[in-house]
Structure formats: C-alpha cells, structure tokens
Amino acid sequence: MQSKILLTEQSIVYGEIPSILKDKLDLDRIKKDIIKNYALNNFQSKDIFNYHKDYIEISDDQHITWILDYIRDHYRAEYQRTPIITQRAGLIQNKGHTINTHHHIDEFNLWGSPDISCIYTLEAGKEPSEIIFEYTKGREKHARYRIPMLENRFIIFNSDLAHYLTPNKNEEAIVNLSFQFQLL
C-alpha cells in the first residue's frame, strides 16, 4: 500500500457576483471613492520599492461589505474555511500602467500574513488587463497562468503566489478592488 501526502496547495478561484446582488451594488460610488483617494495620493505606502505603493486606501462602505460578505459566504460554503478580511484597497491602472510582480506575504510576519487574496474588477475597459500568476511546478521553475480581468469578475488566489497585472491598453482607467484574508 502507498501513501500520498500533499505538501502544498496553490489555487486560483474565479467567478462573478450574480446579477441579483450586483444590481443592488452602487459600484459607481465605490469607484468615485477610489478615484478621490487616488487624486489625494492616499496610497498604502510612499516607498517606491514596496508593492503597496500602487494600493489606494478606501473608505468603509456598505456596498464593499456586501461584496466581502458574498465572497466570504460562498468561499466558506465551497471550501469549509472562513475568510476574515485583513486588508482592502483600490487599484487604478491608467493607460500604459502595470502593477509589477509581487505577492502578499510579509517575510517578517508570516503568521500575520494573509492566506488568500482577491481582486475584484469594477471597471475593465474594452481591452481588459490580465493577471499573470508565476509559480513553480516541479521541474518547471517559471510556470505562468493568466486570467483576463473582466468587469464584475473576482479572482481569489493564495497570497504567496507571485502575480502582476499587464499594462492597461485602454484610454480610460481600469479600476479594481483588492482584498486580503486570513482563513479560519
């Protein structure tokens, strides 16, 4: 008899918020808040070498809470683990702007680092950007997986997965929400 032990698991989960909820969300209000904080330079870091330099502070909002509730409840139902929000932010990609490769693990605080991250696209433009995940798959050291970032799509992934957003090819900005969770 043989035994198999799974040493690590990395995954990407994506889907859309159903129209019955999406129609109740005031996504324009959320976008305006992100744009306002972008204009005020309310970034999570001023350090150009820190990935938080692209992440914009956002205000508390009931509509963001509803998005988080949907993600939490459906993730818990599917995977029997409850995501608890640890951080949230907005992301704006103007024409030609990319979000450089990074992950969401703090090497100096592994236990305080998030387990999973999520990006939710509010505004995608005619040519959506893509999120590219970089990972190691056995002997394949530079494997990549890409997912188009379509409006109303959420993408949940392990926080230790290195990822980047491809350049915005549109004249108008691409607007996303970013969430990070620990799992209970």
Instruction: Kindly identify the CATH topology.
Output: Jelly Rolls
For the record, the count of structural domains works out to 1
Tell me the number of helical segments per DSSP (H or I, 4 or more residues long): 3
Q: Radius of gyration, rounded?
A: 17 Å
Second CATH tier, the architecture:
Sandwich
Care to give the gist of this entry?
This protein is an alpha+beta fold and 184 residues long. It has helices at 19-22, 27-39, 62-79, and strands at 12-16, 83-93, 99-102, 116-123, 130-137, 140-148, 153-158, 162-165, 174-183. The strands form two sheets. It has a five-stranded antiparallel beta sheet. A four-stranded antiparallel beta sheet has the order 3-8-5-6, with no helix packed on it.
Describe what this molecule looks like in 3D.
The protein has 184 residues and is an alpha+beta fold. It has a single domain, classed as Sandwich (Jelly Rolls). 19% of the residues lie in helices and 35% in strands. It contains three helices and nine strands; from the N terminus they run βαααββββββββ. The chain has helices spanning 19-22, 27-39, 62-79, and strands at 12-16, 83-93, 99-102, 116-123, 130-137, 140-148, 153-158, 162-165, 174-183. It has a five-stranded antiparallel sheet with strand order 1-7-4-9-2. It has a four-stranded antiparallel sheet with strand order 3-8-5-6, with no helix packed on it. The longest helix is centred in the middle third of the chain and has 18 residues, at 62-79. The protein is globular.
